[in-house]
C-alpha cells in the first residue's frame, strides 16, 4: 500500500504555501481554496515545474523531492500526470498523436495501439484524426484526460479540469471522469474551487486558504463542522452549477 | 441585414498607401518593360551567367544551412536573456543586431580585419596552417552569413517569445526528456518562425554584394556571385545586366512562393 | 559684400606667397565665376584632382566643386542614365566614348596618360621582383576587372608579354586593388603608377618595362547638359593649363 506523502513549503509572491498531506492509493483528494490560495503552486510542486523551497514529496518509497537530501527528480521522471484547465493539447498533432505522446516518449513500441485503446475507453475514438482546434471544450478535456492516463502516471493531478467548460457540458464530463477515476489505481489529486467537483469525485477534501491548510476531512465532515467562513460559503454553493 | 465590413479603412489612406505600392512595384515594372526579351535566351545561356547563378544559389544555400545550425541555438539564448540583468541582456541583443545596421561594406572590412591574411585570426591561420580565407568560396559564405544570419535569429527568437511555454511543461509531465520536448514540441511550434527566418536569410544572402566583394573579392566561378556580376556587367553591357537582374528577381520569387506552400502544407498534414 | 571679396582676394594672394607651391594659381581677381560644378573623375585621379580643386578654388572662391571618383565605366554609365554632371574625366577613350556616343559630350581632350605599375605590400611577403613572378600560382594577385580601364590596360600588358597570370580577384576599380595590396590580402596587384605614388609608403612599387605596351590616355570633357558651363569650362581649362599639367605630373601622370 503506497501512500503519496507531501510536506512542502513553496515561496510565492504574497505569502508562502505551507502544506502537508498524505493520501492512500486509489483514493482521490480534493484540494480546494479561493483563487490565489496557492493551489496552482501545489500542482506545480507535485509535477516538478515549481521549485519547492523546503520539504519532501514521496510516492511510496520513491522520492520525488527531498530538499534536505538535495533530491529533485525532473518532470519526466516523476510520473505525475497533469490534466490542465486549458487542456494544453499539442496543436500540431492529431488527437491520436497527442494521446500517444506519453507512451512514445518513454519508448513504447505499441504506443499508437495503446493510445487508440484509451480513446476507445473514453468513447472518443471517432476523434482520432482530428486536430485540437477542431474540438469542442468538452471533447478536448476528454482527450486531455486520455492523454494523461495513457502515460500511466502513478499520481494523477486534475487542475481545475472543468473550469473552462460550459455549464451544460460540465456535469457530463464530470460524470465521465468520475467513471474513469474509479478504475485508476494510483493517487488522484483534484484541484478545484467548485464544490460540485468535490462532491462528484473526491474521497477527502483539503481546504487551503492563504497558503495554509484550514481543514481536512471528508465532505460530510466538512458539512458537519465547517472550520472557516470560506468553507461555509463554499458548501452553500453546492448544487448551484 | 447588411453589416459594415470590420476591415474597411478610411479612403484617404489609399493615397500614401498607393504611393508606397508604386515605389515598390514600378521599378520592377520598369525592369520588365525595358528587358531585352529577344536577346534573353542568348544572354542567359552564357557560361558566366550560369556560373554566377550557380555560385549564388550554392553559397546562399550553404549560408542558410549554417545560419540554421548556429542561429537557432543563438535565438534560444537570446530568448532566455529576458531573465538576465539589464547590461548583459542589452549587450547581447545589440551584438546580434549590429550586422543588420552596419553598411555591408563595413562588415566586409571588419571581416578582413579578423579573417584576412593579416587579420587577428587570419594571420595565425596563415602562419601555422597555411590557410587563407579571402578570395575563396568559403569567404563568400562567411560574408553572407555575417549579414544574413541575424534575420534568422531575430525571427526565431520572436517565435519563441510568442510561443506558449506551457506546452513544454505538459510534455514534461507526460514523460518526455528535455531533448524529446525540444524535438517534438518546441521545434514544431516555432517551425513557421524558423521557416520565415530561413527564407529571409536565403534571399538576403542571395542579394549580398558589399561585404562579399570587399572580403571575398570577385572571381568568376569562385567568388563572383550574381549581384557582383550584374554590377560589373552594368558598366559594359546594360542589357546583360538587366537580364541578370531578371534572373535574380525570378529566383527570389520562386523561392518565396515554393517555400511558403511547402511550409503551410507541412503543418496541415 | 565687396569688402569681403577684397579680403578673400588679399588672403589668397598672401596664401600664394607664403606656402611653397608647385605652380602659382591664376590671379585672384578673376572671380566672376560662381555656383557649383559636379565632376565625375576616374578613381586614379583622386589625389591629383583634389589638389587641382584646392588651387582652382583659390582663384575662384565662389565656385564649389563636388567630386565623384570611381571606376570610369561605372561613372560613364551613371552619366548616360542621367546623373547631373558638368565635367567628366575618364581613364580611357573607350569609357569617354560611351558618353560621347550618347550625345552628352563632345570634343573630349586628352589631358594625361598613365601607365601600370606593380604594387606589393611594404614587406613584400611574396618576394616579387618582376611581372613574370606573378605566374606563380601560390601568390595571391589582384587585378582590375576587364570592364574598367585599368583592367583593359592589364589585358593589353598580358597580351604583349604573353604571360599567363590568373589573379585571385578582379576588383571593380583600381583603388580597390590598391586597398587589397595595402591590407596585405594579396602579394601583388597591378595598379597605375600614380596610385603607387599617391599611396606613399603604404605600398611598394615595382616598375616593369612592358608597362609601356599599354598606356592609358585620359580624356576630359565638359558635358553638353552642364548647368554651369562657364565654371565647367574654366575647370577644364585649368586642368589643361601648363600649371595644371605640371601639378598632374608631380603626381606621376605622363603627358597626354
Write a concise synopsis of the structure shown:
The complex is a heterotrimer of chains A (241), B (269) and C (256). Chain A is an alpha/beta fold.
Keywords for this entry:
heterotrimer; A: 6-stranded mixed sheet; about 25% strand; B: about 270 residues; mainly alpha; 12 helices; disordered C terminus
Rg value of chain B? 22 Å
Approximately how much beta-strand content do the residues of chain A carry? 25-35%
Q: What letter string, H or E per element, gives the SSE order of chain A?
A: EEEHEEEHEHHHEHEHEEHH
Distance between the termini of chain A: 36 Å
Helix content of chain A: 25-40%
**Assembly annotation:** heterotrimer
Q: Percent of residues of chain B in helical segments?
A: over 70%
- Provide a count of the helices of chain B: 12
**Sheet with the most strands, sense and barrel status of chain B:** none
Q: Average pLDDT across residues of chain A?
A: 90
Question: What value does the Rg of chain A take, in angstroms?
Answer: 18 Å
Order of helices and strands of chain B: HHHHHHHHHHHH
Distance, first to last CA of chain B: 38 Å
Largest interface: A-B, 25 and 20 residues
Shape of chain A: globular
Amino acid at each position: 500500500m503506497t501512500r503519496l506523502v507531501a510536506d512542502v513549503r513553496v515561496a510565492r509572491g504574497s505569502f508562502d504555501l505551507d502544506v502537508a498531506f498524505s493520501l492512500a492509493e486509489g483514493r482521490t483528494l480534493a484540494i480546494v481554496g479561493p483563487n490565489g490560495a496557492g493551489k496552482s503552486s501545489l500542482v506545480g510542486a507535485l509535477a516538478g515545474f515549481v521549485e519547492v523551497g523546503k520539504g519532501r514529496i514521496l510516492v511510496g518509497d520513491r522520492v520525488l523531492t527531498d530538499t534536505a537530501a538535495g533530491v529533485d527528480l525532473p518532470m519526466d521522471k516523476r510520473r505525475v500526470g497533469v490534466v490542465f484547465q486549458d487542456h494544453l493539447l499539442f496543436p500540431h498533432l492529431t488527437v491520436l498523436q497527442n494521446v500517444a505522446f506519453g507512451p512514445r516518449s518513454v519508448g513504447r513500441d505499441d504506443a499508437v495501439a495503446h493510445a487508440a485503446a484509451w480513446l476507445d475507453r473514453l468513447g472518443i475514438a471517432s476523434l482520432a484524426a482530428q486536430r485540437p482546434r477542431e474540438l469542442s471544450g468538452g471533447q478536448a478535456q476528454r482527450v486531455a484526460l486520455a492523454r494523461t492516463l495513457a502515460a500511466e502516471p502513478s499520481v494523477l493531478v486534475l487542475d481545475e479540469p472543468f473550469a473552462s467548460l460550459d455549464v451544460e457540458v460540465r456535469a457530463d464530463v464530470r460524470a465521465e471522469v468520475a467513471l474513469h477515476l474509479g478504475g485508476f489505481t494510483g493517487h488522484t489529486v483534484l484541484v478545484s474551487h467548485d464544490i460540485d467537483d468535490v462532491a462528484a469525485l473526491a474521497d477527502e477534501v483539503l481546504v487551503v486558504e492563504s497558503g495554509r491548510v484550514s481543514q481536512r476531512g471528508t465532505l460530510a465532515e466538512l458539512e458537519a463542522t465547517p472550520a472557516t467562513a470560506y468553507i461555509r460559503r463554499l458548501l452553500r454553493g453546492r448544487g448551484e452549477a | 441585414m447588411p453589416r459594415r465590413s470590420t476591415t474597411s479603412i478610411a479612403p484617404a489612406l489609399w493615397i500614401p498607401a498607393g504611393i508606397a505600392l508604386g515605389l515598390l512595384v514600378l521599378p520592377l515594372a520598369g525592369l520588365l518593360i525595358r528587358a531585352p526579351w529577344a536577346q534573353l535566351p542568348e544572354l542567359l545561356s552564357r557560361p558566366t551567367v550560369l556560373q554566377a547563378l550557380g555560385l549564388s544559389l550554392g553559397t546562399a544555400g550553404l549560408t542558410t544551412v549554417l545560419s540554421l545550425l548556429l542561429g537557432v541555438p543563438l535565438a534560444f539564448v537570446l530568448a532566455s536573456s529576458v531573465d538576465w540583468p539589464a547590461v548583459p541582456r542589452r549587450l547581447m541583443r545589440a551584438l546580434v543586431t549590429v550586422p543588420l545596421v552596419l553598411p555591408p561594406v563595413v562588415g566586409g572590412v571588419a571581416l578582413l580585419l579578423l579573417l584576412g591574411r593579416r587579420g587577428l585570426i587570419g594571420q595565425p591561420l596563415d602562419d601555422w596552417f597555411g590557410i587563407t580565407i579571402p578570395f575563396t568560396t568559403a569567404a563568400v559564405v562567411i560574408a553572407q552569413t555575417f549579414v544574413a544570419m541575424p534575420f534568422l535569429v531575430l525571427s526565431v527568437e520572436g517565435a519563441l517569445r510568442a510561443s506558449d511555454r506551457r506546452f513544454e511543461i505538459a510534455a514534461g509531465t507526460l514523460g518526455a526528456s528535455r531533448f524529446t520536448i525540444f524535438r517534438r514540441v518546441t521545434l514544431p511550434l516555432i517551425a513557421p518562425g524558423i521557416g520565415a527566418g530561413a527564407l529571409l536569410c536565403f534571399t538576403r544572402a542571395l542579394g549580398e554584394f558589399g561585404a562579399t566583394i570587399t572580403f571575398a573579392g570577385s572571381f568568376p566561378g569562385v567568388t563572383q556571385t550574381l549581384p557582383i556580376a550584374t554590377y560589373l556587367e552594368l558598366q559594359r553591357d546594360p542589357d546583360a545586366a538587366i537580364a541578370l537582374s531578371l534572373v535574380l528577381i525570378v529566383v527570389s520569387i520562386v523561392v518565396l512562393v515554393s517555400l511558403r506552400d511547402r511550409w503551410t502544407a507541412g503543418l496541415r498534414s | 559684400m565687396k569688402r569681403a571679396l577684397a579680403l578673400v582676394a588679399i588672403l589668397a594672394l598672401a596664401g600664394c606667397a607664403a606656402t611653397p607651391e608647385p605652380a602659382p594659381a591664376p590671379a585672384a581677381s578673376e572671380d566672376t565665376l560662381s555656383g557649383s560644378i559636379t565632376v565625375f573623375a576616374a578613381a586614379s585621379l583622386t589625389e591629383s584632382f583634389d589638389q587641382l580643386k584646392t588651387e582652382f578654388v583659390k582663384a575662384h572662391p565662389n565656385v564649389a566643386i563636388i567630386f565623384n571618383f570611381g571606376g570610369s565605366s561605372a561613372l560613364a554609365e551613371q552619366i548616360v542614365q542621367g546623373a547631373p554632371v558638368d565635367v567628366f574625366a575618364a581613364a580611357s577613350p573607350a569609357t569617354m566614348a560611351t558618353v560621347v556616343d550618347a550625345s552628352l559630350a563632345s570634343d573630349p581632350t586628352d589631358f594625361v596618360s598613365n601607365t601600370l605599375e606593380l604594387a606589393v605590400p611594404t614587406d613584400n611577403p611574396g618576394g616579387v621582383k618582376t611581372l613574370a613572378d606573378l605566374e606563380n600560382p601560390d601568390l595571391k594577385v589582384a587585378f582590375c576587372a576587364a570592364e574598367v580601364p585599368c583592367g583593359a590596360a592589364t589585358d593589353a600588358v598580358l597580351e604583349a608579354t604573353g604571360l599567363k597570370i590568373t589573379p585571385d580577384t578582379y576588383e571593380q576599380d583600381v583603388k580597390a586593388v590598391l586597398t587589397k595590396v595595402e591590407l596585405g590580402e594579396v602579394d601583388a596587384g597591378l595598379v597605375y603608377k600614380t596610385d603607387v605614388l599617391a599611396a606613399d609608403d603604404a605600398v611598394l612599387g615595382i616598375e616593369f618595362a612592358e608597362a609601356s605596351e599599354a598606356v592609358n590616355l585620359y580624356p576630359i570633357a565638359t558635358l553638353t547638359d552642364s548647368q554651369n558651363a562657364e565654371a565647367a569650362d574654366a575647370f577644364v581649362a585649368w586642368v589643361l593649363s601648363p600649371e595644371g599639367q605640371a601639378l598632374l605630373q608631380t603626381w606621376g601622370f605622363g603627358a597626354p
